[in-house]
Design goal:
696 residues, alpha/beta, Collagenase (Catalytic Domain), Neutral endopeptidase, domain 2, 2 domains, 5-stranded mixed sheet, 4-stranded mixed sheet, 26 helices
């Protein structure tokens, strides 16, 4: 599950991709099982607030409005955010907490080379508006001059790789290394599609009014950047046209969000020698050398067609147009970290993309930058102060209880045979559980921050260090299953199929997701749903293709796989008819994995809650039964106002359904919800049992 925060996180260079497929599943979480102690209840609060409700709405007609309508009315969207709600509330709380941690080092001199010096100086560099405004675009001039002086196409490719290593995003594709999907114990170098300034291919072709506005705003943004760095209007427009033509050429053959979820369609392993033979238009030797890669034997080309298109572009496009493309990437990637006028240009474009009305204050942007760049260093400070050991143990207990519940539901499934059930149980039993923070922390001793250099130069050096560090730990190396895909201060969670792990960072383990002082109804409905969500990802349409060791390997009988596909299609078709704005519907194939996560997560957590109630029953509170409060807690997690532009952005680019749909779309598929609120035929949200997707 995911919210988007507009955070300037700079952990890897723009071109360095870290997976062979679009897979790490973000946010509604899940954990593991065995016989575990019951969650204490008797003296605890309900975690329930009646003011969140709108009781003028019937639960069966619009449960989202019923459950959180009061909250939506009392929490209007402010100018600084594209959405509000639990994620944003916690993110803002974390911003303040992390700022205070940073100021311990930024407010006084630190020993040169110490971690405190790196934290403090980077923050102060980001905060020094006087210096940034004085420098203007001077920090960019050496790189732009370097691009301008390129003499031929071979030199062009070399310089692009060198700049990309420093975070400029100048390659027209991504390179990286992550677990080999079919040999998950070893990392594999990977190449994937990229090069699009708008990120998602659909933005280049969709004909709705918002997409047209985005395209126009993007071109205007690029033109402004070119003019701000010395071009007159005519020259700037010529460069914009060149950039757009290149990106359109790439976009035409790029995979959309649905095809990117097709594992086999995005896996093409070959030897390095074969790569050179099959894709001769790219100077792979110099590209990988300039990016800092050691020699390697094998590589995975995720999306062949866009890479072949890049070959044509590098061969046929006028050199001056290629240079314009490179300039655009250098300037746009740096814009938010330059002077105020560049930041404003960058923000003005984001206003069109997301509907945000007001930029975040500088200190918040500086905190995001430091927290993203020195993620685990900040994370270590964060958990020491804000994450008690008792919370980790309670989470482990919850995970174990949910694992038991999923195991029960697998055994009870009428659509699976014994052989497939045994494989599913074995995979479930072998889940790796990560809670709070890593067992070993990242070493930042090689990273340098020098306050005599510009912020731009420091970020370039940091990106180069991060890239080199990542490559050193992954290329030609076995997979390190202790590595985390998120920092502890991240308000999110994930499942990774190649390690068969579920991970819950410390920052999400606080109210309204997890509250040690709240009763079982509140915690199972909220964080339990998160746990179940991530747990279910191991058995969604993608995760179900991986075995307990993280290898893409079929463990299904033919009949059972056909039954599974039939049931997931019900969910895909159902969400494809769910309207989130007038005339705007969810893409059920694009969001299928996440919708399976919510469907399974709710069913698993609800079963675990029922098991808990048998041991320690709860009473009705304020007219609401424990079962009702379970579903109210789920809805509270998703209470959120959003700009229409942001909703459209999610529909286009995200594999998650918008928040309202994760309540009103998810709950009609859950049998227990009907019983809890006495939902009957004739209620607007009623769905006949025969049309519900009974999966996990």
């Amino acid at each position: 599950m995911q919210p988007s925060f507009q955070a300037e996180e700079m952990m890897l260079p723009s071109g360095l991709i870290t997976t062979n497929m679009n897979y790490k599943i973000l946010l509604f979480a899940s954990l593991l099982c065995s016989s575990a102690p019951a969650l204490a209840q008797n003296s605890q609060s309900t975690g329930y607030d009646r003011s969140n409700l709108d009781t003028s709405v019937r639960p069966g007609d619009n449960f989202y409005e019923f459950a959180v309508g009061g909250w939506l009315k009392s929490h209007p969207l402010d100018a600084q955010h594209t959405e509000n709600g639990a994620f944003i509330d916690l993110y803002e709380l974390n911003q303040t907490r992390i700022r205070n941690l940073i100021l311990e080092y930024a407010s006084k001199p630190q020993k040169k080379g110490s971690l405190g010096q790196k934290i403090g100086d980077l923050y102060n560099l980001a905060m020094d508006s006087v210096r940034l405004n004085k420098e203007g675009w001077d920090p960019l001039k050496p790189d732009l001059t370097r691009i301008n002086n390129i003499k031929d196409r071979r030199e062009y490719q070399l310089v692009m790789a060198q700049l990309d290593r420093c975070g400029a995003g100048t390659l027209m594709f991504g390179i990286g290394a992550d677990a080999d999907l079919r040999n998950a114990s070893m990392n594999l170098v990977s190449i994937g599609q990229g090069g699009l300034g708008l990120g998602i291919r659909d933005y280049y072709f969709k004909q709705d009014e918002q997409s047209k506005k985005i395209r126009a705003a993007y071109k205007a943004y690029l033109k402004k950047l070119f003019m701000m760095t010395g071009d007159d209007e005519a020259a700037a427009q010529k460069k914009v046209d060149a950039v757009w033509n290149i990106e359109m050429q790439i976009a035409k053959v790029s995979y959309d969000r649905v095809k990117l979820r097709d594992i086999d369609a995005n896996y093409h392993k070959l030897s390095y020698d074969q790569l050179v033979t099959d894709y001769p238009g790219i100077d792979w030797g110099n590209t990988f050398l300039a990016e800092g890669f050691p020699p390697f034997e094998s590589v995975c080309v995720g999306e062949p067609e866009p890479i072949h298109e890049v070959e044509k572009i590098l061969m046929d496009t006028p050199l001056d147009d290629l240079k314009a493309y490179a300039e655009a990437k250098v300037i746009s990637n740096a814009a938010s970290h330059l002077s105020d006028d560049f930041r404003k240009a960058d923000f003005d474009f984001s206003r069109v993309m997301t509907g945000v009305k007001e930029d975040r204050p500088r200190w918040k942007r500086a905190v995001s930058l430091v927290s993203g760049t020195l993620g685990e260093a900040i994370g270590k400070l964060y958990v020491e102060k804000y994450f008690p050991a008792s919370s980790k143990q309670m989470m482990l207990d919850l995970v174990h209880n949910l694992q038991t519940a999923l195991s029960e539901r697998i055994n009870e499934a009428t659509w699976m045979g014994a052989a497939t059930k045994a494989k599913a149980q074995d995979k479930l039993k072998n889940y790796i559980i990560k809670i709070g923070y890593p067992d070993k922390w990242k070493d930042y001793s090689g990273l340098q921050v020098n306050d005599s250099l510009s912020l731009y130069d420091n970020l370039a050096a940091i990106s180069r260090w991060a890239s080199d560090d990542y490559i050193a730990r992954h290329v030609n190396k076995p997979v390190d299953k202790s590595e985390w895909g998120m920092t502890p201060q991240t308000i999110n969670a994930y499942y990774n199929p190649t390690t068969n792990e579920i991970c819950f960072p410390a920052a999400i383990l606080q109210p309204p997701f997890f509250d040690p002082k709240a009763d079982a109804a509140a915690n199972y409905g909220a964080i339990g749903g998160v746990i179940g969500h991530e747990m279910s990802h191991g058995f969604d349409d993608q995760g179900s293709q991986f075995d307990k060791n993280g290898n893409e390997k079929n463990w299904w009988t033919k009949a059972d796989k056909a039954n599974f596909d039939k049931r997931t299609k019900v969910l895909a078709d159902y969400f494809s008819n769910f309207e989130v704005l007038p005339g705007v519907k969810i893409n059920g194939k694009q969001t299928l994995g996440e919708n399976i996560g919510d469907n399974g997560g709710l069913n698993i957590s609800y079963r675990a809650f029922q098991n808990e109630m048998k041991k320690a029953p709860l009473k009705t509170v304020d007219g609401f039964t424990p079962d009702q409060r379970f579903f109210l807690s789920w809805a509270r997690v998703w209470a959120s106002n959003m700009t229409p532009q942001f909703i459209q952005l999610l529909i286009t680019s995200d594999v998650h359904s918008p928040n309202m749909a994760r309540v009103n779309g998810a709950l009609p598929q859950i049998d227990g919800w009907y019983d809890a609120f006495h939902i009957k035929r004739g209620d607007k949200m009623y769905l006949p049992k025969s049309k519900r997707a009974h999966i996990w």
